[in-house]
Design goal:
Blueprint lengths: L3 H6 L11 H8 L3 H10 L6 E3 L3 E3 L2 H16 L4 H40 L1
C-alpha cells in the first residue's frame, strides 16, 4: 500500500460509490490517458464500463491506482516490476486469507466436536 507520506500529498477519496476517469485523474494526480494505459498493463485494474464505453472506477480501483502510482513514481519501479510486486502482494493476501479461514474452520470444528462429546 501507499505509505502515509504519499497519501498526504493526494486529496482524500470522497465517500462515493463510482468515480469518473476525470475524478480519478484528479484524486490520483495521473492523467486520464495514463489511467487507460495502466488498465492494459495491470490486470487487477478493471473499471466498470457502461454506455458509450465510459469508465466508472470504484473506491478499490482508486486505491489500487494510488498504489501503482506510488510504485512507479515514488519507488522507481518499472511497469513490469510494479506488476510483479502487485501480483506477489495479491498472493500474500490470498495466502493470509486462506490461513485465517482454516483457523476459523478448526475453531468451529472443535466446537462441534465438544458438542458431540457432551451428547
Amino acid at each position: 500500500m501507499l505509505e502515509p507520506s504519499n497519501n498526504s500529498e493526494l486529496p482524500t477519496i470522497p465517500g462515493k460509490r463510482y468515480f469518473t476517469i476525470g475524478e480519478v485523474s484528479n484524486l490520483c494526480a495521473v492523467k486520464p490517458h495514463v489511467l487507460r494505459y495502466w488498465e492494459q498493463e495491470f490486470s487487477q485494474l478493471k473499471p466498470l464500463k457502461r454506455r458509450g464505453n465510459r469508465r466508472y472506477y470504484q473506491r478499490q480501483d482508486v486505491i489500487l491506482i494510488r498504489q501503482i502510482r506510488g510504485l512507479l513514481y515514488e519507488q522507481g519501479f518499472t511497469i513490469g516490476g510494479a506488476r510483479q510486486r502487485l501480483i506477489s502482494e495479491d498472493a500474500k493476501d490470498d495466502s493470509n486469507q486462506s490461513q485465517q479461514i482454516i483457523k476459523q474452520m478448526r475453531v468451529e470444528l472443535d466446537e462441534v466436536l465438544d458438542i458431540l462429546r457432551r451428547s
